[in-house]
Amino acid sequence: MENIIKDIDIISGEEDTNSDFKVTAEENTGKAKRLYIESYGCQMNFSDSEIVASIMKETGFDTTSDFNNADVILLNTCSIRDKAERTVRKRLSQFNQVKKANPELKIGVLGCMAERLKEKLLEEEKLVDLVVGPDAYRDLPSLVSLAEDGQKGINTFLSREETYADISPVRLNSNGVSALISIMRGCDNMCSFCVVPFTRGRERSRDPHSITKEAKELFDQGYREVTLLGQNVDSYKWSSEENNKARLNKKENEVSQVVYFSDLLEMVANVDPKLRVRFSTSHPKDITDKVLETMKQYENICNYIHLPVQSGNSRVLEMMNRTYDREWYLDRIKKIREILGENCGISSDMIAGFCSETEEEHQDTLSIMDIVKFDFSYMFYYSERPGTLAEKKYKDDIPLAVKNVGSRRSLTSKVPFHL
Ligand code: SF4
């Protein structure tokens, strides 16, 4: 499959409205209709768009890079920050003209924003015909048919089982070398600032055999690097006897075999020594020595870990419900250096200006950067999200100007960033 997606940067004159998204590129196999997808946000969304393209391909859609030629436009959205949602709203308003020129065009919103806003999105954005949450993509063909009959289509049901394990994704952002493989969905962690547990539902792990099968197929097609994706890969846990995470946790000792993330890493590394294996995202509370030992054992597992710290201060970490403190995080870093050596790449995510954070506490975040010497980090100022624990429990009391300085100051720390 040739590359059928390309990166686009929307550069607007307004501060705080820049965004990146990926769009489908042309693939004409003679099908009757054209699908155009724009994917915003994290790698999970890009991976999900590949699943969506695969489902839609089965029902008669080729992909296009030009929304003017599309029968259906889908925006696969992100809710992690207010800015991400504003970007999508602005983009939808730009599609008004396109829809006027082509009244038969159907427009759908997928992903986290669809899940968060549900019917409200249909009420607020009149041009939207479809609202589909991350666990309901199998329903897309029937929802599109509904929209073609002049009705609105909505499905935001969150599943405890859906992993799309049997769907072979159409590789949208492919360079023919690297590919994303989704290994789990959802998140059970409930970090107080995060909307993901509400938009992507409970955590569930995908059958490891379907993952290795996908990795093998990719290798046979010429791919040489796979990234195993999940909100919290270290808590990957699968058993053929029980795949409901909560029930599996309760009867872990009763099932004959449980596959943990370290086991999965090993299985994928063994697909072929020439296949490089990456993974994202790790959680400091869950990354085990066994995972580090497995990384050391296999040369084809890349020596790199994305380990978000979020804050360098223990009080703030507790308020964030990260379930580790500064010392725990630094201990994990020490262990990574011990087992994988000083050359292991480490990157992070950090938030400046979380509720009630003092200047001294912010300085703790800067100091952790000096200690760890991250290879790079994603720096954000705190953006309150409706429905999160932080929104319910804490006051978003740090002025935007202070937060902004904080997140930018992180960028000018003496730590050598490679952004
Ligand atoms: S681990 Fe925390 S920050 Fe990451 S997706 Fe889950 S709740 Fe959100």
**Can you list the ligands bound to this structure?**
iron/sulfur cluster
Top-tier CATH class of the largest domain: Alpha Beta
Number of domains: 3
User: Main sheet?
Assistant: 8 strands, mixed
Structural class: alpha/beta
Helix content range: 25-40%
Q: Give the quaternary arrangement of the chains.
A: single chain
Low-confidence stretches: 1-18, 412-419
**End-to-end distance:** 31 Å
Number of helices in the DSSP assignment: 15
The CATH superfamily of the largest domain is identified as Methylthiotransferase, N-terminal domain
Shape: globular
CATH overall fold name of the largest domain: Rossmann fold
| Average pLDDT for all residues | 89
Based on the structure given, which CATH architecture of the largest domain is correct? Answer: 3-Layer(aba) Sandwich
Strand percentage: 15-25%
Description:
This is tRNA-2-methylthio-N(6)-dimethylallyladenosine synthase. The protein has 419 residues and is α/β, with parallel strands linked by helices. It folds into 3 domains: 5-155, 3-Layer(aba) Sandwich (Rossmann fold), CATH 3.40.50.12160; 175-301, Transcription Regulator spoIIAA, CATH 3.30.750.210; 303-419, Transcription Regulator spoIIAA. 36% of the residues lie in helices and 19% in strands. The protein contains 15 helices and 18 strands. Strand 7, helix 5 and strand 8 (153-155) form a beta-alpha-beta unit. Residues 1-18 and 412-419 have low confidence and may be disordered. The structure holds iron/sulfur cluster (SF4). Iron/sulfur cluster (SF4) binds at residues 187, 189-191, 194, 196-197, 231-232, 283. Iron/sulfur cluster is lined by residues 187, 189-191, 194, 196-197, 231-232, 283.
